[in-house]
Design a protein that fits this description.
Strand order of the largest sheet of chain A: 8-7-9-10-11-12
Strand content of chain A: 25-35%
Structural class of chain A: alpha/beta
Distance between the termini of chain A: 32 Å
Oligomer: homodimer
Helix content of chain A: 25-40%
Number of strands of chain A: 12
Radius of gyration of chain A: 21 Å
Number of helices of chain A: 9
Largest interface: A-B, 93 and 94 residues
Largest sheet of chain A: 6 strands, mixed
Order of helices and strands of chain A: HEEEEHEEHHHHEEHEHEHEE
């Protein structure tokens, strides 16, 4: 269940070269500035459409690469797919197979077609996160209950103990593996670690949620769900959405380098997820599920 | 057209107090850790539904506060509203006025009802950014053209010159005004400045796009669109989505403390927006529209 970051980073097309004018103000008080043209590497951002059983389901702006994993992980995070057996097939649109005749170069490679296994379907409930349908659901129901599709006590059986010193070591490991980040400065990262603190997979994207979807998709396609005993570390903050994705993947501990939102902490508490925030240097804040953080006596 | 940040920060409910276990690892090599319980302020995150002429349009996870502005700015960013006159009325659902009888406490205050002026409507094209409809649009058209609803050369008439020294001063001004950020560490900020570098408005949110929608909404409700001669500064990176929102609000210069994506740079170039990234310390990168950055001879 290991993968080197070199393998994870091997897919091309994640950066794009653009011309840039570098402007420097040597003295803020003086009316002077220098400018020089140079090339700069930017994180690539392109739309990815996900089609399920022939019907368009969602569109996300993402960094190209690992698109099949992204689609698979997205479906897990929407509670449509619970394991590899729920997916009959996935393929990236190559411009000839999807029934549309007038493709441009931009679309080819930017659509993933998913075929669900017999008996698996996109239910109305599973669509509650999608903009045009979820809005209706807010009024007349409790907001959190309506947005959230988590099963009852999904993580109660996972009693893995995580050592604080191991957790404190994770941000450094994630940064060390973020080769693309060091060249563009514009990518969020998500890393999956086992209870010993070993990096299992890392993914990067312009969207934090996409990076997590790619991690979960990597796992589901290898039939590794639920990800019991694992830690998911994200480079930024922890939102409600990321808590939901972690729980649906069976991950017992979500850690963020920055702050969680109030709703992230509330949902984590409700779902039995251990939520760690401000994981920096030698310290961290535990917002929920502290029983899994093993404080030595 | 000025507003103090104290006014902008005055709305309550933007933070929530939660119990947290603070864990410190004094020595990474040793199997020791200390833990203490304390209270922590988190950025509040709650769903906001936006209804237009009685029909649910979208749902966003946002930090409560400035919700009417958020809804107004969102509609500008979707090219549905072009000015204050396009909006006949807006109100926050108080649990009695929206025709639903079984409200819970969670929903009250979390839905904004918008009534458009006669002749203004949510067109099919304007919905292309919404998940369930936009996906269909990707296949069969050029991706950028299809996702984007920008008018032709929207900013070509704005020839404001921005001084590099003034631009370099903006991140410090934004940080100084971010009182909520300093207490929670979890909020994105967007600030609107005039060409002299004076702060006109600041908004914060768990979502970067929401902070920008709140700024644009503040402006449209005061009938200040287009925001000619202004700079919009965002605390993180610049995505395709933010470029689109800036252009539709008539803002000629978008600056980001971190990196833009490739698509952000491409769209900015196409729309004639000046896009500045890595605005830090005494330097910056200009990715498009360098003619507006006034390099002293």
């Amino acid at each position: 269940m290991t993968e080197t970051w070199q393998e994870a980073m091997a897919v091309s097309g994640r950066t794009a070269r653009r011309r840039v004018l570098r402007v420097t103000v040597p003295d803020a008080a003086a009316d002077r500035a220098t400018a020089s043209a140079r090339a700069d590497l930017l994180a690539a951002e392109e739309p990815l459409g996900i089609r399920v059983d022939g019907t368009a389901l969602t569109l996300t702006m993402r960094t190209p690469g690992d698109d099949v994993e992204l689609a698979a992980g997205f479906l897990v995070g929407e509670a449509i797919v619970r394991g590899r057996d729920d997916i009959a097939g996935m393929k990236v649109c190559d411009g000839t197979s999807c029934g549309h005749l007038d493709h441009t170069d931009d679309e080819i490679g930017n659509i993933v077609d998913v075929t669900l296994a017999p008996g698996v379907a996109v239910s109305t409930g599973a669509r509650r996160n999608f903009m045009t349908t979820s809005a209706c659901g807010v009024c007349g129901k409790t907001s959190i209950d309506d947005i959230c599709v988590l099963p009852q006590a999904p993580l109660s059986g996972d009693e893995t103990a995580f050592a604080p010193a191991m957790l404190a070591s994770l941000p450094g490991k994630l940064r060390a593996a973020q080769r693309v980040f060091s060249s563009t400065g514009g990518l969020h990262a998500a890393g999956l670690f086992n209870a010993a603190g070993e990096l299992l997979a890392i993914r990067e994207d312009v969207g934090r949620h996409n990076a997590v979807d790619k991690i979960v998709g990597w796992a589901v396609l290898q039939d590794k769900l639920p990800l019991a005993g694992c830690t998911l570390l994200v480079s930024g903050r922890a939102s409600f959405e990321l808590v939901q994705k972690a729980v649906l993947a069976g991950i017992p501990l979500l850690a963020a380098v920055s702050a969680p939102s109030s709703l992230a902490a509330d949902l984590a508490e409700e779902a039995g997820l251990t939520l760690v925030g401000f994981l920096r240097g030698q310290s961290m804040n535990v917002y929920s599920g502290p029983h899994r953080v093993a404080i030595p006596a």
